[in-house]
Amino acid sequence: MVRHRVSRPWPVLPVGGELLTVAGKAGKRPGMAHVGRDLQARELRERATAAMEQAYAPYSNFHVGAALLGSDGSITEACNVENAAFPAGTCAERAALAAAIARGVRTFQSITIVTSAEVPTPPCGMCRQALIEFSPDLEIVSVTRSGQEARWILSDLLPFAFTPRSLDRTND
Ligand code: THU
């Protein structure tokens, strides 16, 4: 599979239309795998968008939804939740990660992020660090409501990451 590594967004079809839940079936027919992937990508966008609409962001007014695609095909979505005590707020990506872990999912294929911004935004540094613990090769798809899209691979966004291996003791 060719992975796109771009820092510049390119246009895709606008988010919208009916809720699609048949990605698995289309993906099983010979030569139809791309259809399954397209449907799955669309479902991820739909789920992230629905989560974004639940965002609690009265302080920044920056609404974020994230849908995590597990290695098992499961989808877990969440939104950002702010707080009057600002540091107590949580990003959508880490909220989705915590919910997925609670479901028993620990490795991930991709995360789709939808925001209220004009251009696609990458995940913040803290979310990159939280996600890289579980899936360094995670594909990150960031979209806007108007249909702009950008993609990255997590390890490209956080090179030389601190990982569980960094805790290995070598001097005693
Ligand atoms: N936010 C996210 O949910 N994800 C990110 O990757 C960047 C920032 C949230 C945190 C805060 O509620 C608002 O967006 C503005 O920073």
Describe this structure in words.
The chain is of the alpha+beta class and 172 residues long. 28% of the residues lie in helices and 20% in strands. The protein has helices spanning 23-28, 33-52, 92-102, 125-132, 154-157; strands at 10-11, 64-70, 75-79, 108-115, 139-144, 148-153. Strands 1-6-5-4-2-3 form a 6-stranded mixed sheet. The radius of gyration is 16 Å and the shape is globular. The relative contact order is 0.16. Residues 57, 60, 62, 64, 80, 82, 89, 91-93, 123-124, 127 line the site of tetrahydrodeoxyuridine.
The structural class is alpha+beta
Strands in their spatial order, largest beta sheet: 1-6-5-4-2-3
Determine the fraction of residues in helical runs and give it as a percent range.
25-40%
Radius of gyration: 16 Å
Residues in β-strands, percent:
15-25%
Helical element count? 5
The chain-level mean pLDDT equals 86
Tell me the span between the first and last alpha carbons.
Answer: 43 Å
| Main sheet attributes: strand count, strand direction, barrel closure | 6 strands, mixed
Task: Say which molecules are bound, naming each kind only once.
Answer: tetrahydrodeoxyuridine
Uncertain regions: pLDDT < 50 for 5+ in a row? 1-27
Shape: globular
Overall strand count: 6
Order of helices and strands: EHHEEHEHEEH
Write the layout of secondary structure elements.
Blueprint: E1 10-11, H1 23-28, H2 33-52, E2 64-70, E3 75-79, H3 92-102, E4 108-115, H4 125-132, E5 139-144, E6 148-153, H5 154-157
Parallel strand pairs: 4-5
Antiparallel strand pairs: 1-6, 2-3, 2-4, 5-6
Bound molecules: tetrahydrodeoxyuridine.
Tetrahydrodeoxyuridine binds next to helix 3.
